[in-house]
Amino acid sequence: MMGSPGSGKTTVGRLVGQKLGLRTLDIDDDHLEPYWKMTVAEKLAEVGSDRFIEEEGKALLEFNAQNSVVSLTGSNPMHEESMSYVSKSGMVVFLDVENEDIVQRLERMKVNRIVGQGPGVTMSDILQYRQQFYEKSYDVRIIVEKNETQESISNKVVEVVKRTKNHKGYVSTRRIPNEEELKSMTFFDVVLKGLAQDGGLFIPAFKIPRFSLGELDRLVSMDYSDRALRVLEKWISPYDCHPSKLKEFIFKAYSNESFGSSLVFPVRHLEGNQYLCELFHGPTASFKDGAMQLMPQFFMEAIKSSERDIGNACKYLILVATSGDTGGAVLDGFSRHSGNSKIGVMVLYPEEGISEVQKKQMTSMAGDNIHVVGIRGDFDVCQSLVKRAFTDNILSMLLIQSTGADLFLRLCSTVSAYLELVRMGVVEMGSDVDLCVPTGNFGNILAAFYAKEMGVPFNQLICASNKLVHYDLRKRSLIQSFSPAMDILVSSNLERYIYHKSDSETVRHCFDSLIENRFFKLPKEVGYLLDPHTAVGKVVADKCQTKNRPVIIASTAHYEKFAPEVLRILGNDMGNAPVSDMFDKLSNICSKPAKHNNLRDVLSRPKVHQKVLEGDYKKVTGDIENFAKRI
Ligand SMILES: *Cc1c(COP(=O)(O)O)cnc(C)c1O
């Protein structure tokens, strides 16, 4: 047990010991004092505050215990070497209590000074300073709620320890695995494999983790990266990816440089009871950046750990089918986060039916290890080509289809959108809100379903779609629209959803809001430019929204990505004018949201990928193999 002085380590430790039937030890009383043969206060007086940490660390290195719950001291985590020793021999549980609460508790306990607190330094300052050491040293974090009882905290510890020790991995939607296999697929396996070999998709075999409202409340005042870290810690076992790594990846992914602000995905009022969650501030201006700035980092880590296992024999080719936005986001993510490694990225996009800006983003990405190919066919054709190539094992090298683990990453933005509404004072923690998501491959709405299952108070989850709605592919043909990422008939993630649903008797989730809606008009009075995907979301929210409940509409792309289409809808068709002129025109028509940072640069890049192929399996796999030889 680790945490600030006054976080309750000793009492909680004792309760946890009782519940787990383990011995309880306190580093102060049971180790330091007998080891030093004097009280901690005497030692502190003897060596002084500065040397104390060192002496305490040395003593900890001499400590041995098994089958015990051990309460560390508040200053132990400041000694790195001894903490890494501790973490090798057991699970470090961090009781993460809000500093303000600690200050109050310490006042009640009449503690007015702690180790390392120099003159003139307030208790709050020193606690804040120490936080970084705690953040570096834990394996699992317990988010302690305001006024939470020791009993409740200890129950959480017991649950988390059990869950972490018996962590179940990931399974395919198409097969019920045996007990042995349940543990065999780790998070990094899923990152590397993407699709299950049987053609199914991976889903977690473990119970969906939950947040209490008190825990969510602690996240309200945080920046996006800190929220995301706490969400992902609940999903990803520390034995798969340690929280210290997770934190490093998250902070790299969601830097101000890439997303413009630490809010990352800000929420703003649209009109009435409608709020937009702006998911488009990333480098390629769609919400796909949210996952794709993180995925490549997980991927590199997964390669590192698999090469440790099987030797340095693998070459990697990331094969992506895109409906327009994923391709650009993957190319940007890998070029930023994969270092100098030779990983090939190949993107298949529908030659007809994505926007000019989207096409330009991808076909102008230079690099020996990048191959971008247009396919004469729609996204469904591209996706089925990729899936088939994958299940056929067409290459001896590892093929990746990047739709596996990114669901958790999307989940973070959904959880965060709710927290933003609370932070803005629109709702109180615990009040229901609805969520309306423009839907193509069902990824976002599935992430929303997971967020709701985690305990975020979402009521209706509304799927905004351009078309359909019986899931019967025999009679349907695709209606092309201006929102290409939604022009998808065979929604991949529907499979995950069906799995979860058929696994449970209760109807947990409102999924009846798929609306026939072939066209839309931008609402003029709003004074805000929506991209065509978000506009579909808005139209559907107008129809489905419950009167008194706020709705968050996921704003999935920046309107500039669809500048010609948006202008045409607004009655300002500019024909073949340069797209940059269209950007100017649009920002003159409406100043909200602000122009995107990167898209203008994209327009001036030369096109480097010219290839367009028929949607023919042999031709495409031939091209994949040729590219694979070059990397
Ligand atoms: C990908 C995408 C969607 C659809 O999201 P899914 O997760 O596939 O349902 C909607 N809008 C935009 C702009 C997209 O790029």
UniProtKB/TrEMBL annotation:
<dbReference type="Pfam" id="PF01202">
    <property type="entry name" value="SKI"/>
</dbReference>
<dbReference type="InterPro" id="IPR027417">
    <property type="entry name" value="P-loop_NTPase"/>
</dbReference>
<keyword id="KW-0663">Pyridoxal phosphate</keyword>
<comment type="similarity">
    <text>Belongs to the threonine synthase family.</text>
</comment>
<dbReference type="Pfam" id="PF24857">
    <property type="entry name" value="THR4_C"/>
</dbReference>
<protein>
    <recommendedName>
        <fullName>Threonine synthase N-terminal domain-containing protein</fullName>
    </recommendedName>
</protein>
<dbReference type="Pfam" id="PF14821">
    <property type="entry name" value="Thr_synth_N"/>
</dbReference>
<dbReference type="InterPro" id="IPR031322">
    <property type="entry name" value="Shikimate/glucono_kinase"/>
</dbReference>
<feature type="domain" description="Threonine synthase N-terminal">
    <location>
        <begin position="170"/>
        <end position="254"/>
    </location>
</feature>
<dbReference type="InterPro" id="IPR029144">
    <property type="entry name" value="Thr_synth_N"/>
</dbReference>
<dbReference type="InterPro" id="IPR004450">
    <property type="entry name" value="Thr_synthase-like"/>
</dbReference>
<dbReference type="InterPro" id="IPR037158">
    <property type="entry name" value="Thr_synth_N_sf"/>
</dbReference>
<dbReference type="InterPro" id="IPR036052">
    <property type="entry name" value="TrpB-like_PALP_sf"/>
</dbReference>
